[in-house]
């Protein structure tokens, strides 16, 4: 149905032709299509019988283009090349929320678990690799409007293989956990799964020890989205899976006691209410929640109360306690809850890594799986979404650069003249965000550190001054209120909406709140689980404060730079996941939604690069084997070299000189119609 490889489309520059081919295949449950070696995957929103062990064995060890497009072909090709050439690979899986990225990542892991060599000892490693997923999903995934199991963090997992090709270990890096979800969810969304799983599935004694009730409606942090119970999610069953996973990943009962104690403490924190005393200062009248936190974290009650309602400030070279008003006390409470959860997630990833670590010092090869959040343009784009979109621009830059590099290297290797390829280079977008002293992130850092009050408006004015005339930057008109209206904007532009998410939420509140001794106190008392201070005592030093708040904006940029360096050292494979409709409805193909994703996933750019020059290339041996029956001289057996056989074959068929080129080991065919005529 249609063409299995977009490279073979006659109208390869037509977006309509691209969508038409995708639609035809999707309507026949053919959810996979190639662009060269890149796999486009459309979420079917239903179970398909294409992931069986029989299917896995079918794709095992088979030439990449011999069978129809499949995720297993991508996985197997990366594995075979790694084993044969003893080099490292990565598979980049990207797409919008609900497009099927996490499922694709799990399917690849399952493929390696079934098809790679194994021993009883290696089975433990495989089980841990597979079962790390439900644990990370419990703490890092949540129900959103677009997806009932949306990853709210980016994940890069290295699977380590020994010289026999057996998986022997792994390592996980996590990126930008959405901590704001801990304290606030939009209507129709939930907090992280683990909170609901604990309440629904935890046994009576555990909940009693934690001071929790089964009903999620009792907890302020769980009900803001007004959908604590979701028909499609079985929290009780998921709890059982997570508990089993913990035991196999090597968590001790002591570890779990600390972990669930902190999860419960976050829920208790959310239920703390502040009232105003006669001086306008925040006080806690009902100490029930504080008592539970004191018990679970081992912190003295009076210290907790003081820490939540006061902050330390410097006065005449001395530290004094300054009371917080009610608003600031609520900000402090929420900031602490987010910080605790973020650090706990980091600890969880480190703990999983220690169980996956391979102590053997012999050389390993790796296949990395990068399951990264997708580019999205919302009516109101938060700071997190800005970082996510920036991340996708960087990865798109990497994709085009590595594809171009691979194409150029193949041409040179084969002795074919390289023709420069016109394409949109999004380096100009990346520079707009990340350029030192001139980019948006640097401007944000400067604005948050300048003397005086940093506001949303002052940040917007600074952007207008520094990058206002940039071809790919658009701002709303200045107003003193928070801006939320939408405007039409160019396809590749940085768009400013609710700036409050940038300065106020991410920086100003941190300055006000995390300097509270409470942030340091909870961490030092619970260091078994969280390991490092939420906010070091040195936070009082202006210099250290400065470096910390620069890192609020630049930390993601730095970790992304490190990720790009990791990926640049490996051979790439790509899976681009597409969401066919907003309602998770099987068989429905929403043209405008998919057209939007095709643009922002850079699929037309990738196709343009792959199609420039020659649409099709194959090893002489494979081409001759496929088409030798078309020429009397090559059928049934050709007794010379494969290159000579192909040359004889195409002359007999009648290829014109402008339709092909002969390389050192491959034939290059310029037009799809030439290949299709040969097939016919």
TrEMBL record:
Keyword line:
Actin-binding, ATP-binding, Motor protein, Myosin, Nucleotide-binding
**What one GO molecular function would you report for this record?**
actin filament binding
The record's region (Actin-binding) falls at: 560-582
Annotated Gene Ontology cellular components are:
cytoplasm; microvillus; myosin complex; plasma membrane
Family in the record: Belongs to the TRAFAC class myosin-kinesin ATPase superfamily. Myosin family.
ATP-binding as a keyword of this entry, yes or no, is yes
Where do the Myosin motor domain residues begin and end? 2-680
User: Binding of ATP: at which residues?
Assistant: 95-102
Signal sequence extent: none
Q: Which domain of life is it from?
A: Eukaryota
One Pfam family recorded for the sequence: Myosin_head
Task: Write the protein's name.
Answer: Unconventional myosin-Ih
Any single biological process term in GO: endocytosis
């Amino acid at each position: 149905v249609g063409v299995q490889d977009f490279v073979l489309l006659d109208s390869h520059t037509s977006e309509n032709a691209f969508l038409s081919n995708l639609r035809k295949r999707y309507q026949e449950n053919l959810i996979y299509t190639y662009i060269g070696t890149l796999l486009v995957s459309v979420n079917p929103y239903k179970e398909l019988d294409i992931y069986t062990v029989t299917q896995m064995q079918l794709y095992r060890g088979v030439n990449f283009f011999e069978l129809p497009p499949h995720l297993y072909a991508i996985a197997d090709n990366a594995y075979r090349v790694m084993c044969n050439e003893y080099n490292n690979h990565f598979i980049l899986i990207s797409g919008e929320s609900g497009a099927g990225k996490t499922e694709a990542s799990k399917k690849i892991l399952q493929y390696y678990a079934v098809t790679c060599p194994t021993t009883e000892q290696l089975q433990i490693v495989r089980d841990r690799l597979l079962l790390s997923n439900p644990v990370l999903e419990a703490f890092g995934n949540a129900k959103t409007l677009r997806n009932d199991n949306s990853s709210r963090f980016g994940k890069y997992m290295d699977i380590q293989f020994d010289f026999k090709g057996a998986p022997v270990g792994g390592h996980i890096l996590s990126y930008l956990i959405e901590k704001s979800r801990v304290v606030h969810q939009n209507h129709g969304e939930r907090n992280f799964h683990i909170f609901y799983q604990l309440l629904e599935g935890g046994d009576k004694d555990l909940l009693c020890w934690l001071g929790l009730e089964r009903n999620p409606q009792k907890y302020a942090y769980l009900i803001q989205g007004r959908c604590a119970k979701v028909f499609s999610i079985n929290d009780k069953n998921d709890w059982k899976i997570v508990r089993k996973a913990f035991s196999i990943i090597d968590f001790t009962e002591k570890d779990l006691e600390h972990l669930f104690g902190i999860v419960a403490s976050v829920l208790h924190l959310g239920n703390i209410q502040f009232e105003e005393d006669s001086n306008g200062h925040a006080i806690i009248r009902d100490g029930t929640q504080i008592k539970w936190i004191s018990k679970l974290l081992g912190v003295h009650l009076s210290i907790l109360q003081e820490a939540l309602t006061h902050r330390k400030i410097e006065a005449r070279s001395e530290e004094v306690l300054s009371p917080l008003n009610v608003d600031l006390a609520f900000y402090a409470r929420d900031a602490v809850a987010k910080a605790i959860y973020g650090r706990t997630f980091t600890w969880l990833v480190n703990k999983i890594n220690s169980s996956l670590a391979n102590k053997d010092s012999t050389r390993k090869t790796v296949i990395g799986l990068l399951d990264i959040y997708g580019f999205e343009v919302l009516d109101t784009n938060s700071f997190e979404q800005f970082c996510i979109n920036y991340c996708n621009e960087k990865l798109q830059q990497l994709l085009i650069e590595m594809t171009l590099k691979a194409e150029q290297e193949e041409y040179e290797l084969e002795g074919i003249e390289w023709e420069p390829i016109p394409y949109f280079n999004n380096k100009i977008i990346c520079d707009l965000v990340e350029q030192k002293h001139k980019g948006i992130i640097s401007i944000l850092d400067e604005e948050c550190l300048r003397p005086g009050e940093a506001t949303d408006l002052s940040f917007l004015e600074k952007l207008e001054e520094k990058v206002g005339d940039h071809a790919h930057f658009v701002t709303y008109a200045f107003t003193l209120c928070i801006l939320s209206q939408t405007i039409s904007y160019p396809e590749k532009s940085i768009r400013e909406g609710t700036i409050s998410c940038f300065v106020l939420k991410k920086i100003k509140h941190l300055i006000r709140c995390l300097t509270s001794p409470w942030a340091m106190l909870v961490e030092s008392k619970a260091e078994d689980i969280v390991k490092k201070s939420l906010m070091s005592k040195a936070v009082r030093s202006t210099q250290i404060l400065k470096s910390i708040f620069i890192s609020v904006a630049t930390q993601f940029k730095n970790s992304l730079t490190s990720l790009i360096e990791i990926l640049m050292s490996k051979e790439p494979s790509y899976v681009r996941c597409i969401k066919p409709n907003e309602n998770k409805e099987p068989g429905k193909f929403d043209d405008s939604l998919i057209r939007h994703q095709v643009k922002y996933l850079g699929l037309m750019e990738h196709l343009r690069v792959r199609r420039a020059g020659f649409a099709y290339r194959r090893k002489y041996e494979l081409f001759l084997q496929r088409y030798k029956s078309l020429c009397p001289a090559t059928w049934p057996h050709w007794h010379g070299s494969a290159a000579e056989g192909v040359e004889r074959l195409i002359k007999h068929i009648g290829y014109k000189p402008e339709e092909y080129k002969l390389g050192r080991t491959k034939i290059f065919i310029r037009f799809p119609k030439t290949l299709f005529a040969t097939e016919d």
